[in-house]
Amino acid sequence: MAHIGIDARLTHYRVGGISRYITALIAAYEWHRPPHKLTILQSRKAQKPLSSRFAGAKLWTPPHHRLERSTLSIELWRHRLDLLHSPDFIAPRHGARRHIITVHDLSFIHYPEYLTAESRHYYNGQIEASVARADHILANSQATKDDLIAILDVPADKITVHLLAADERFRPLSSAQTAATLRALELPDHYLLFVGTLEPRKNLAGLAKAYRDLKLEVPDAPKLVVAGRLGWHYEQVLADVGALGMDEHILLRHAVSDQQLPAVYNRACAIILPSFHEGFGLTALEAMACGAVPVVSQVGALQEIVGDVGALVDPHNPSTIASAMKRVLTDSNWLAIQSQRARQRAAQFNWRKSARIVLDCYDALLG
Predict the structure, then answer these.
(1) Which residues 6+ apart lie within 8 Å of 198 measured at CB?
(2) Pairwise CA distance, residues 202 & 221, whole Å
(3) Of residues 91 and 165, which shows the higher confidence score?
(4) Exposure of 251 by Cβ count < 10 A (0-12 exposed, 13-18 middle, 19+ buried)?
């Protein structure tokens, strides 16, 4: 029986994004019941295990530490792993017979100016070594696979694409089921919605400019709700948005919990994601599963995820974003059709299918 370790340390420090990816994979593994010994490697600070089926172990090395690749190698030695999966893509120097990593995006290479100096050093300084060290690489989208090949010269046969999915709790809810969340967050009944970390790459300033233009054409347009935690260079993002003088109409909500998200998605007219780059775009898929119509950038993986549902916009041209939002608010027939198609599109993505692809990669590496 092979011994596989899943590096889940990040789940203690962050919610959403990669942490959601890790927990969803583990839940899908429990359903598949793989014929291996799986050990979930968590932070020593974690309060509860991520799985009732698989073994767990605590590690002292925190994620994103400058000495992580060396100290983690030492910690892992005693576990005698046949394979280590690093979902946060920075693999240790040693610690297992085989290594597999997940690369979610290369936005830090596309837009290094959007990172702090510390983060830029961490990611850009280690990605090439980590990609070279890995025996195989998982990519969340074809767009990320294409980036790995074009930018880092990774052989195509070393990369497997496995698309993510929305959790089953992201589904249509009734007004009664969402009312308590809306009251708690002090939100109106309907609104345009942005969900994502507040950082320059998400192009919140461009969205705010587009929304300002929309209000000039459609004065009774609903409010724009911005939900997400503060990220890199958020001060400049908030300053740019504030300078537009739209504070009365743009509602910032930094404390929306993971449990509140399904209700927040359900009451949105549309999910607006005009990012300059995305490796996947899980928030778009979650919103679509709830029936929200996607208005997303025509770059990166977002168009790969939404397909021909909703509207694609040019993130560098706020007028295209404004036009798409105007259609959402003025073409009720189109909106109803797109809402139904959004749910149908989201249903095509499945965590168990994605996990099966990953488990097959484990098997191939273990021989």
Answers:
(1) 204, 226, 228, 229, 230, 231, 234, 237, 238, 254
(2) 22
(3) 165
(4) middle
**What domains sit in the chain, N to C, each tagged with a CATH number?**
3-165+350-366 (3.40.50.2000), 175-346 (3.40.50.2000)
Cα–Cα distance for residue pair 80/73, rounded to 1 Å: 11
Report how far apart, in Å, the C-alpha atoms of 356 and of each of 33, 148, 282, 350 are. 11, 22, 19, 10
Exposure string over 4-43, b if 16+ CB within 10 A, otherwise e: bbbbbbbbbeeebbbbbbbbbbbbbbbeeebebebbbbbb
The model's pLDDT over 255-301, given as tens digits with 9 standing for 90+, comes to 899 999 999 999 999 999 999 999 999 999 999 999 999 999 998 89
pTM above 0.90, yes or no: yes
Residue type, 83: L
The 3-state DSSP class for residue 85 equals strand
Nearest by Cα to 240 from 202, 296, 278: 202
The sign of the torsion formed by the CA atoms of 242, 254, 272, 89 equals positive
Beta strand 96-103 pairing with 191-195: unpaired
